[in-house]
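Fill in residues.
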């Protein structure tokens, strides 16, 4: 992957490319990036830049044999480690057992998150892990001589999934073989083992700007510019979310949201129960339930901003903007903040396989109590 294919973060690209050029390359780096910011694409572009034999300033050439292999994720000196599940009961799963799926996933969803990956390998509700057996395999591979490049590189995606067995890697991270490079790609610094964190150089990757995301949507998906700007605004710096919104009719979420809140504020119990049955069904799925709640959170955040800025500065699609302004009248800032907290908690419980019917029923009751603090308006 080329640096030019990574959205935004131009200063970070220049800084890490400059470290290679000036031979100031830290042997263990932690790329810290929020979801959808491009931590994994940045790591892959960086690895390709390191192995490239004909660099063009701050960019790899993309043409040499090293670049072509890196771009296809088949370079023999670039190794990958990521959360996996056992294929069969009693297995000790390794990343290499899923290398074919991994290459296909990177090709299709380079900005995907862990949930996307685990669903891609049909994990269903099982939790992925980077196991002790994986750590031993990493040590074995990195103790081998490099095949084609001067460097041996390990890209570990989501080191948060390392348990205490990750301490097996400490000695190698602290005293690696010559020309060995560790690139760890994390979303949550607090969930990374402190013993590993203290041995890495932190590289923070910020969320792409609204303009960068909009430009990517225009050039890659050929979306009309004004629509791309709307999607970029709603995604709040998360390119994965922008892609999801581009592939899904937002009006569907809007109608679902409008129905739900009307049933709540009008106290239409029968209709509300029917709505909960539908949204909690397996046909909708956990990921769509979570994305629906995130969509609502985004609207609420804009409603909160509408308390303090002119409506034209919200930069929302007309339907979403009108809805946010109605919510502004329906709830005060404290009520909106409380609703956001309830929705974020619900997202957390969905990720942990909470029963959908119970969750949405309880959430509806909590929202009803919040709305009851102020006279309800019809949405």
């Amino acid at each position: 992957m080329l640096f030019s294919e990574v959205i935004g973060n131009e200063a970070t690209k220049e800084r890490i490319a400059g470290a290679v050029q000036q031979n100031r390359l830290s042997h263990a780096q932690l790329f810290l990036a929020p979801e959808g910011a491009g931590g994994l694409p940045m790591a892959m572009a960086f690895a390709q830049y390191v192995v490239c034999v004909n660099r063009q300033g701050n960019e790899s050439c993309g043409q040499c044999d090293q670049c072509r292999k890196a771009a296809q994720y088949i370079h023999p000196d670039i190794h990958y480690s990521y959360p996996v599940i056992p294929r069969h009961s009693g297995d000790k799963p390794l990343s290499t057992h899923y290398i074919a799926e991994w290459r296909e996933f990177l090709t299709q969803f380079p900005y995907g998150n862990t949930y996307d990956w685990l669903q891609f390998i049909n994990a269903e509700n099982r939790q992925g892990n980077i196991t002790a057996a994986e750590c031993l395999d990493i040590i074995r591979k990195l103790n081998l001589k490099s095949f084609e490049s001067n460097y041996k590189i390990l890209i570990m995606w989501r080191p948060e999934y390392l348990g205490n067995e990750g301490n097996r890697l400490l000695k190698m991270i602290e005293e690696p073989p010559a020309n060995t490079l560790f690139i760890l790609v994390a979303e949550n610094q607090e969930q990374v083992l402190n013993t590993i964190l203290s041995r890495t150089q932190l590289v923070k990757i910020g969320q792409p700007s609204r303009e960068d995301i909009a430009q990517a949507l225009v050039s890659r998906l050929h979306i009309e510019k004004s629509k791309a700007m709307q999607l970029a605004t709603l995604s709040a710096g998360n390119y994965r979310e922008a892609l999801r919104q581009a592939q899904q009719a937002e009006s569907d979420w809007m109608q679902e949201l409008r129905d739900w809140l009307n049933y709540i504020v009008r106290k239409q119990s029968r209709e509300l129960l029917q709505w909960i049955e539908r949204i909690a069904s397996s046909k909708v799925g956990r990921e769509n339930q979570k994305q629906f709640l995130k969509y609502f959170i985004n609207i609420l955040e804009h409603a909160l901003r509408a308390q303090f800025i002119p409506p034209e500065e919200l930069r929302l699609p007309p339907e979403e903007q009108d809805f946010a302004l109605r919510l502004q009248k329906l709830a005060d800032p404290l009520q909106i903040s409380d609703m956001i907290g309830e929705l974020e908690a619900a997202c957390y419980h969905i990720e942990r396989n909470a029963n959908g019917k119970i969750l949405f029923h309880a959430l509806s009751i909590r929202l009803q109590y919040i709305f009851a603090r102020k006279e309800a308006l019809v949405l």
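The radius of gyration is 23 Å.
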